[in-house]
Specification:
alpha+beta; globular; single chain; 3 strands; disordered C terminus; 43% helix; 92 residues
Length: 92
């Protein structure tokens, strides 16, 4: 990973992060536990993948009101539609 790059997008992420992205795309908002169950990845791998996805703005973290000890993760719709996160507003 190159430090300080704003150009990192979904294609640059590891396969586990791409899988987590697809799980959220197909299933909608999920807790970390739900992502672990759907993806069959380890909790540690899911945490890392979510950090990477949040780092490029592809995933948003929210409070899960059914159980405040957990967070709810969902795709950032604008970033996901752009599929790479290159925002037109920030060019130049």
């Amino acid at each position: 990973m190159m430090a300080g790059t704003e150009e990192e997008n979904l294609d640059d992420l590891p396969p586990s992060a791409k899988l987590v992205f697809k799980v959220l795309e197909y299933n909608g908002p999920l807790t970390q536990k739900g992502i672990v169950q759907e993806s069959m990845l380890s909790a540690r791998t899911v945490r890392y993948a979510l950090e990477r996805l949040e780092g490029i703005g592809m995933v948003d973290e929210d409070v899960y009101f059914a159980d405040a000890r957990q967070n709810l993760y969902q795709l950032n719709e604008l970033k996901a539609q752009a599929d790479g996160g290159k925002e037109a507003c920030c060019a130049e």
